[in-house]
Specification:
alpha+beta, Cytochrome Bc1 Complex, Chain A, domain 1, five-stranded mixed β-sheet, two-stranded antiparallel ribbon, 7 strands
Length: 382
């Protein structure tokens, strides 16, 4: 389900996160334990997640229990009780999590990078807060604010449902209609987009005492994927050089986040390493980047990467949960499976020149943002 817009969600992020976290902790008729016991009886695995712009539910059960599981899920969505004891417990856990993140290299690096790319004002749903701001925001959440957010924003008039497996469509639609009928959000809705801003070069070294490992991240804004460079895990160039050949990092790779709704996509790379190896890591990463930009990727690499991507996509669709997730995303983006077929055909037709031209166009070292976080007291970053 989706709700809210950039204007009516101002200063609502922390409240919204806690609303989603409290949904299955009690209803008007059931306690948290009773809900858990009932899902066990139904042989169902159910999870609720969400934030300021929406909430999602993932379910896994069999045909015989699907209708009852779905009915219970709609009851939880429509009639949460928000018990005070559960609220205090969740609030305390959220604060404790932030305290752990304050000294965690990965969390520190991620926060610094997010804040570097942030161009929205404090209070905006897309704003990246500091750890102090996050803690202050969580402490400011009250039960009254939670109940008000739920009343003002929750509703089923914007959303998608995907069901995969052995089930009766007519019966499932009837359960959904009965459970969600006339449940309408009281607030206007519009997709909140994170607009693109040209990247600016950035480098920061953040000290985290007493942490054996450090984290290295770079993230220029991109549109084009390059599985060969780092997304192929052990078979990628980054893993082959930095993990297998140099032995610098046991966790290294790249990630791609494509945005289908606005021209704002991201390619990032990461490595977990011992702080004393920072200079070697930076040198290896720079050399692999320069080599890819200068010499490009071979026909064999590109052929194997295309096969890997297509096989991975097919494997994901072969799993019920993976297919359901894909279908809900397609519905949200106003596409169907023909769109997936089109993308896969385009992937098969990609040439060596296409891949190398794309990498050279979008990977610009001068715009890289770099963050290193770790214990550099004994081995200062150089």
């Amino acid at each position: 389900m989706h709700f809210g817009n950039a204007e009516n969600l101002i200063d609502q992020s922390s409240v919204a996160n806690m609303v989603a976290g409290l949904l299955d902790r009690g209803t008007d008729k059931m306690t948290r334990q009773q809900i858990s016991d009932r899902f066990t009886q139904l042989k169902a695995q159910v999870s609720f997640s969400g934030g300021p712009t929406g909430v999602s539910v993932s379910m896994l059960t069999d045909r015989d229990h699907l209708s009852d599981t779905l009915a219970l899920v709609t009851e939880i969505l429509r009639h949460p009780s928000f018990p005070e004891s559960e609220f205090k417990q969740l609030q305390a856990a959220a604060i404790a999590s932030i305290e752990q993140e304050r000294t965690d290299p990965q969390a520190i690096a991620g926060n610094a990078l997010s804040r570097h790319f942030n161009h929205y004002p404090k209070g905006d749903v897309r704003y990246s807060p500091t750890f102090d701001e996050s803690e202050e925001n969580i402490k400011a959440v009250t039960l009254d604010k939670i109940q008000k957010f739920y009343h003002d924003f929750y509703g089923a008039n914007h959303g998608e449902v995907a069901v995969v497996g052995d089930f009766d469509p007519v019966k499932i639609k009837a359960v959904l209609n009965q459970g969600l009928d006339q449940w309408v959000s009281q607030s206007s809705y519009e997709v909140v987009l994170n607009t693109y801003v040209a990247p600016v070069a950035f480098k920061d070294v953040l000290n985290t005492p007493d942490k054996a490992n450090a984290i290295f991240i770079m993230a220029p804004a991109l549109k084009v994927a390059n599985t060969i460079f780092g997304g192929g895990f052990l078979s990628s160039r980054l893993a082959t050089r930095i993990r297998q050949k140099e032995g610098i990092s046991y966790g290294v790779g790249s990630f791609l986040r494509l945005n289908n709704l606005t021209k704002n996509s991201t390619l990032g790379a990461y490595a977990i390493y011992a702080p004393q190896n920072l200079a070697r890591l930076e040198n290896a990463f720079q050399e692999e980047t320069d080599k890819a930009l200068k010499d490009g990727f071979s026909e064999t690499e590109i052929k194997e990467a295309k096969q890997s991507l297509l096989q991975s996509a097919a494997l994901g669709r072969a799993q019920d949960d993976g297919l359901a997730e894909l279908l809900t995303k397609l519905l949200f983006d106003n596409h169907d499976m023909t769109y997936v077929d089109k993308l896969e055909k385009e992937t098969q037709q990609v040439s060596v020149n296409d891949v190398n031209a794309a990498f050279r166009k979008w990977v610009t070292p001068a715009s890289f943002a770099e963050v290193m976080a770790g214990d550099f007291n004994k081995h200062p970053a150089k």
